[in-house]
Amino acid sequence: MQTITLTRPDDWHVHLRDGAMLNAVANFTARQFGRAVIMPNLKPPITTVAQALAYRQRVVKAIAPAAKFTPLMTLYLTESTPLQEIDRAAEHADIIGVKLYPAGATTHSDAGVGSLKRIWPLLERMQQRDLPLLIHGEVTDADCDIFDRESVFIERELVPLRRQFPELRIVLEHITTAQAADYIRDAEGPIAATITPQHLLFNRNHLLVGGIKPHYYCLPVLKRAQHQQALLAAATSGNPRFFLGTDSAPHRLTDKHSACGCAGCFSAPQAMAWYAQAFAGQHALSQLEGFASVHGADFYRLPRNTDTITLTLTPNTIPEHYGQHDTQVVPLGAGQTLNWQLNNA
Question: Which helix (H) or strand (E) holds 7?
Fold first, then answer.
C-alpha cells in the first residue's frame, strides 16, 4: 500500500501550551486533525469555563485561517471546584470534559486532586450531567515504583470510583500497560482510553539504554516491551474503546536538557506518520481509520469529520528541532526517518 486516505482524524489529548509556544506549535496539530481536546494544565490552570473560553480564543487566534480545526476545551478539576462550574461546563458546547490530575502526577499538576473521595460530589454531578471525566491514571505515593503507578491506580482508585459512579463517562488517558489495556477492554460501562504514538512505538529501553534520552521521557513513563506489545494489540484490534490521543507536549529545549528535565514528547509535527508507522508494523493499516477518526468521535457523541487526509509511503526525515530561542523544541524521533508522510504537510 503506497497511500492511505482516512476520514480526517481527531486528537483526543494534546497540550498546546500558551503564549509564544502556543503560536509556535498549534498549527502542527491543526493541519492534521479536525478537532483536538486541549489540556488545561497551564500555569495557572484552567479551572473555570470563563478561563477555558478565553484560552480557546487564544488557540483559535494561533491557528492558520485556512485550517479546518475545532479546539475542544477542558477544565482542570480541583477539590474546590464549585458544583455550579460543572453545570456551566455541561451546558457549553465548547467544553468537552473535565480533567482529573492526581496532585503531583505530571507537569503542572500541583493544583490537582489529593483524594478522590473529596471530589465525589463533583463526580456525581458530572454523572448526572453526562460530562466526561478525563483521567491521568497514576498514583503518586512516594513508595510506589514509578513503573507501577498506573496499574496501582486502576486497582486502588479507578475500580472503586467506577463502582460508585457506574454511568460516568470516563477516558483513561495515555494508557501505558497491559493491565490498563485489559481493564479498558473488559470493564463494564462507558469507559475508553487514548494511546500515544510513543507508547506504541517505544519502550523503556529506548529511554534508558545507552544513556538517558530526555526526548523519550514522558509521564506516564515508557514501560517494558511486553506492555508496548499489549498497547499495539489494543490499538490495532478495532475495539472502539481505544482511540488516538497524542499527548503531544512541547517543552523548550532548555527545559528538557536540564538537571530536572520536563516530562513530555513533542509528537505533533509527525503525529499521523507515527501512527501509520505503528499500524503498518502490525499489518493493520485497515484499522487505522477507526482508531484515528471514528472511535473517539463516537465515544464523545460528536459527528465524524467529513473531509479526509492522505498519507503516502515516502521517507520522511524528522527535523532536529523546530522554532528558535524560547520556542525551540526537539520533536519525538529527531533525526530519524519515518516511512510515512502526510501529504501537503
Answer: strand 3-7
What is the Cα–Cα distance from 54 to 6, expressed in whole angstroms?
Answer: 32
Residue type, 29: T
* Residue of 63, 29, 24, 30 whose CA lies nearest to 330: 24
Could you state, in chain order, the average pLDDT of each consecutive group of 10 residues for the chain (345 residues)? 94 98 98 98 96 98 95 97 98 97 83 92 98 97 95 97 98 98 98 98 97 96 98 98 98 94 97 98 98 98 97 96 94 97 83
The model's pTM: 0.97
Instruction: Judge residue 209's burial from the number of C-beta atoms within 10 Å of its C-beta, 0-12 exposed, 13-18 middle, 19 or more buried.
Output: exposed
Cell numbers 483559535: residue: 60
Q: What is the DSSP string of 37-49?
A: EEP---SS---SH
Say whether 247 is catalytic.
yes
Q: Which among 11, 247, 298, 307 is annotated as catalytic?
A: 247
